[in-house]
Amino acid sequence: MASSLRGKGSQKQDQVKDKGDNLKQLTLKQVSCSPAVTDDSTHDSGSRILEELEKMRKDNQEGHTQTQLSLTRLETAFKGLKDEVINLEKRTTEVEDRISANEDTVKRHEQAIRHLLQRDMHLTVRCEDMENRLRRNNLRIYRVPEGSEGKDVKLFVQELLKSALQLPPEMNINIERAHRALTARPKNPDAAPRSLIVKFLDYSVKEAILRKAWEQKKVMYKEGQIYLDHDFSPELQKKRSHVRDAVKQLRTKNIRARCIFPAQLRVALEDGEKTYQTMSDAQPVLEKMGVKVRVDERERLEAELSRRGWSTAGARAWSGPQTRSYAGIESFFTTKE
């Protein structure tokens, strides 16, 4: 662009110069061809030539000045553009460095989160296992009407079990305590009553009573059927409810299925029986059979982490990565220089 402006300025100057030369030659030619011209006419012609030359000189100077101003403005603009390009290069380099550092930090944080999730899952499994072990002597009785237990729940349960299960009179049940489930009493009279929780001193007595109830199949109390079952933790009860829901849907399709401890689904398929550890594992097969499966977000996360090589089968079968110390966890969040 600068060279173009310089070329235009010099071209203009050349044109003015050529014009002056042509005018000068033309004037001299006229003078030489007219020897009879007087001195006054020669003087007037010379004055006009001088005026024309002065005018051309002035135009030439103005054109040169404008060209210099244009070149100065152009150089200033180029200098500004050069500074902006340099600043943009610096900022681009800085942004790239920051993005690279952030990617490294995000990667370390992701590793730390995965490790903490793994530890959380491991500890949750162990806590649930311990809680269910503490409940091994407990028995839950469902569908007993509210208020029928009176003030002495322990005595009521003893009489209920002996009469409903036809236990021998000499059998010592050895109940340590009994009470309703620790939830609010339902205000709706048509709602299901709270379950009765019974703790036995002897685990074998509880197992014998439960087997007797399962053998009898129908346990009645005041013309209503009641149910006896193990006392599981709330988390395990939730998982078992999902499995039982799938079992009901499969049985309506004439497919044999059952829930086995702790919350596993066993289905009779064409190639034989198959056991699924979690409902997330059974979901693809059950959906092909037209069975709707309920899987909570935690179980989905456990299944995803298990596919990445983490095991959550239980505390005794734990085979995940070795635990890290707090210093090791902190190193995940430390920015590397």
From TrEMBL:
Q: Where is the composition biased (Polar residues)?
A: 24-35
Q: Which UniProt keywords apply?
A: Coiled coil
Task: Show the coiled coil region(s).
Answer: 71-98
Map out region (Disordered) in residue numbers: 1-45
> Domain L1 transposable element RRM spans what residues?
136-229
InterPro entries on file: L1_RRM_dom, Transposase_22
Indicate the secretion signal residues: none
Q: What is this protein called?
A: L1 transposable element RRM domain-containing protein
State the organism named in the record.
Cirrhinus molitorella (mud carp)
